[in-house]
Amino acid sequence: MKITFLLHNAYTVDGTVRATTNLAAALATRHEVEIVSSCRTADRMPVAVADGVKTRALVDLRPTSRRTAVEAADLRAPGTVCPHDSLHAGWTPPSRLGETRLAAYLRSTDADVVIATRPYLVCFLAQHGRTDYLRVGQEHAGRDAHGAALLDDLDAAVSRLDACVTLSLADERAHRAALRGVRTRVTSIPACCPAPDAEPSTGESRIVLAGGRLTPMKRYDRLVDAFGKVAAVHPDWSLRIHGRGRERLRLRRRIEELGLHNNVLLMGARTPMEAEWAKGALAVVSSSSEPSGVSLVEAMSCGLPVVSTDCDHAPREIITHGADGLLVPAHGPVEDALADALCRLIENEAERRRMAAAARRSSERFRPEHIAAQYEALFADLRPEFGRRSWKAVAGPGRRTRLSTLGVARLGQPVTADCQVMPGGSLAFELSADQLMPGARELVLQHRDKNIGGTPRIQLDQPDTGGDGSVRAVLDKRHWELAEGDWDVFLRRTGGSRARPVRAGLVETAHLLDPAALRPTDEGTRTWIPYATEGGGLAVRTWLRPAHAEVCCVEVDDNAIRLKGSLHGRTARAHHYRFMARLQANGGHLIDAPCRVDPYGDFHITLPVDVVAEGHPGGDALWDLRLSAYGGPEIRLAMVTGDLVDRQDVCVFPAIRCAGPGGELSLRPQLTRDHDLVLRTADAVLSRP
């Protein structure tokens, strides 16, 4: 069969795109599969797709795209189909140009099955699709997420299709009740989740994870409140919320109000998420409705037990309470229930590990091959002639890879490499051998500051003919010392001069959170964090500080800024220190304060707010924060251990308003690009929220 999926924008990251690419990959092992995106907003799809899945975009919205005057006018004209879909109010609304091209595609396609993935596309498929192919609508949001006007449009459209597939039994029942007497087949097939390529969680971290768009339905506001209760009992545990959305600023304000900035981090979006799930010990879902459960199954696949509200629809169909997770009531004192369930698993390691193992086993039923088989059975039941066809057989699932790596390897073209931080901090690189031309190859790391030498070159192993067709190389931390900064990764023929840039595949940094990696050592701090650049390249951020003061906690109130941390390095721990705040401008005005260091190298600093206010020079000023020892090193305070390559938008500290010599001013600790801690003071009229 030829199966086509319709997405509005495949070049963004959300649950619908992830679920669609996962299912497309599974079906592509036996069928011809295509993803058609109504629009294109980026050079590459951020979600990996299988080699066997074709993609096309109908309207290119990238700034560099060219179009005729007529096309430009049609692009500005709004679309008219399904006007009640929120898509029309989004940042890529349907246009007359897009609708003209989509209608033409549906008239001319040679697909056997066309699957629409959101209400707007379901309505469009009902209006313009041909009856000689199967027309299937998918419901990813859940019926209760739509308003009455949109439901009227959607029900009318579904009644003209061959099938409507929901992601949960509860949503199937809701659709059946609303569509009585309609001949359309209404059924439920859960979203699929491939086995993770990343190593599963060890369960040794003290991190709780949540993932999904920052929307009101996710109810992250009550999760933050619940975690405030958890942090009061277990201050060494943290909550990381992954995702982007319109609730971000409101959540940030709530985190500051509760003083949880050291414990609750808004991480932004990550793709893929599996490497992030592997860093957690627990996952949590606080939604008022969870129609697909994609993130929930992803977390379970990585070995995380899930604490979830017992909301509509997916959680109660995925989690077995007490076996692979915990369900708490979705109404009433939800914050207390979430906090109690999290504390129960935090305090009972044996139960947590038992549930983690059960979660991995339970997630197996959502593997793509099982879900694809259910879709094949549906298609064959609707069109018996499909069941009599001899479908192609392909060994194993399609390899997930980035679109930019498809095709024959050519000199100068990017290749894709996975990178994993190993226990001890060394970096293991892995590339598919089919990206390489014949001959010996080496990976080269080049510092972005061309004046810094010491370029590491590591030889790639030759592919094992009986293995998986991959080549590997290890950058051993015991043998290499990398200067501080950013290093880009290239591939080069051994002894050659021309290099090919390396794109980031799966980047795993969970071992940077191992207790041994965070513990102070005599050699100071040597942190290597691999990451994907904004353009998709593979790079390594390094810090090299033989004497280092790592800040672990920043507390802010109306009277003082209090800093806690630990000294790293034999030379750092051999001295007594005072704390210094030095103004970067105006001659470097200096404020100093005592610094208590205990026998274990842990330091405590209290900086009175009124002392800083007296030294404020007016305007907007930055102060460097350091520890100074008589006759010894001067050490900048920083936050460079762990797994975060860019903390500036993640570790955000509250501001204080106070009176200064020239009027009211604002004080806020913040991190630089190099993760050094500084203090910003600004006249109140100049300070930013």
Instruction: Give unreliable regions as ranges.
Output: 394-412
Helix tally? 17
Overall SS class = alpha/beta
Number of strands: 36
Tell the overall outline: globular
Proportion of residues in helical segments: 10-25%
Distance between the termini: 55 Å
Could you give a short account of the major beta sheet? 9 strands, mixed
Q: What is the element layout, followed by pairings?
A:
Elements: E1 2-9, H1 15-27, E2 32-40, E3 49-50, E4 53-60, H2 69-76, H3 96-108, E5 113-116, H4 119-128, E6 134-139, H5 148-158, E7 163-166, H6 169-178, E8 185-188, E9 207-211, H7 220-233, E10 238-242, H8 248-257, E11 264-268, H9 274-277, E12 282-285, E13 289-290, H10 294-301, E14 306-309, E15 312-313, H11 315-318, E16 325-328, H12 334-347, H13 349-363, H14 368-382, H15 384-387, E17 400-401, E18 415-421, E19 427-432, E20 441-447, E21 457-459, E22 470-475, E23 485-493, E24 499-508, H16 515-518, E25 525-532, E26 538-545, E27 548-556, E28 560-568, E29 577-583, E30 590-597, E31 602-608, H17 609-615, E32 620-629, E33 634-638, E34 656-660, E35 663-671, E36 677-683
Parallel strand pairs: 1-2, 1-5, 2-4, 5-6, 6-7, 7-8, 9-10, 9-12, 10-11, 12-14, 13-15, 14-16, 18-24, 27-33
Antiparallel strand pairs: 3-17, 18-19, 19-22, 20-21, 20-23, 23-24, 23-26, 25-26, 27-28, 28-31, 29-30, 29-32, 30-31, 32-33, 32-36, 34-35, 35-36
Helix pairs in contact: 1-14, 4-5, 7-8, 7-12, 10-13
